[in-house]
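ZP: hey, is the pyridoxal-5'-phosphate complex queued? I don't see it on the tracker
AM: it wasn't, my bad. submitting now with these inputs:
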Amino acid sequence: MLRRSRSTGEHMAHGYHFFMNPGPTNIPDRILRAMDRGAIDFTAAQFRAISEECFAGLKRVFKTKETILAYAATGHGAWEAALVNLFSPGDKVLVVESGFFSLNWGMRSEAFGLEVETLPNDWRRPADPARLEARLREDREHRIKAVLLVHSETSTGVANPVAALRRAIDAARHPALYLVDTISSLASMDFRMDEWGVDVVVAGSQKGLMLPTGMAFTGISAKALAAAAEAKLPRVYWDWKRLMGEASQAYWNGTAPVHFFYGLQEALRMLEEEGLDDVFARHHRLAEATRRAVRAWRQNDGPEVYALDPGAQSDTITAILVPEGHNADQVRQTCLDKYNLSLGGGLDRLKGRVFRIGHMGDLNEPMVLGTIAAVEMALDLVGVPHGKGGVQAAMEYLEGEGN
Ligand code: PLP
């Protein structure tokens, strides 16, 4: 609870800070403790052993036998790395619209002199493979060099069908590269780089991998590496050729982020101890509990899950649309001020319309139930109409079907 001190007038927070943003996520103590160590020489054998263990573990998480490269950067850096390594000025890319993050990646492509076409899509529904196939079939001269997709659209909570969209590219017999942003899905939702034919995977450290913000990754197929050899956009820091080694990355532009590797080593061990399939099942269970709560609130014309298609709701983030005439940011601010609970706000055209609950990373049932309880109280306090019993609906699901 954040209350003002009677003596100093300062805000005082008590108890556990419920950090339920859709990234970054809370960092488990095990990872914090693993990072709480002295620096070592990043050119020495001790660091090489740690980084090789990490790259091997990452390959199991990406489900790939292909190349993975890491950067000291946020996800925006990995977005940019993909663009500058793969394309030449004037190349055309097709952005599959899903929300703020898809359009943002497209906007960055434009900044590098690429021609960007957007495949328009309703933000509340997943991308339609048939529409992608039809658009690619029309592109007889193969001007489209790549399809850019966000797997879990963090601004809307919609999950896109990565494998089905790959099949659409194949059905159109189109040679475009397939680039997928997994920043809010990797290590939380099933993702299979090789099986799903993804050429470049963009990922970040601060969500499913449970690390601080500041490390980013790209998974790169042999086809993408071949395209990079021909691409003309200038690059130095992001240059894949400079960074690559044989089995794992051989070079860092500057000092390697050693402490991130300490944390990553521990994160990968945690994921493997739990087992990736169980990690995904836990995320699904906690996401579904959240959605059941919102369904209870939906009574009395209350808030609703923004993502409409039950088969395409992200298991890492739920965006909750408040009824017309109400301000989602007020709900969010009340949660923070009164209950020390941090939620995500609406982005771009969804500002003030949705608040977002992140349910990813190191999370359990009581954390989700506590969040739902606080949000339900905030809805009351702010005067947003809603049905009662969100916590009860979530509990019943977790004890029953979701047990
Ligand atoms: N893509 C998606 C889907 C995201 O959710 C985010 C951040 O939340 C980004 C890209 C940008 O990543 P970063 O903030 O690490 O630069």
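AM: back. Residues 23, 74-76, 101, 150, 154, 181, 183-184, 204, 213 surround pyridoxal-5'-phosphate (CB under 6 Å).
ZP: great, adding it to the tracker
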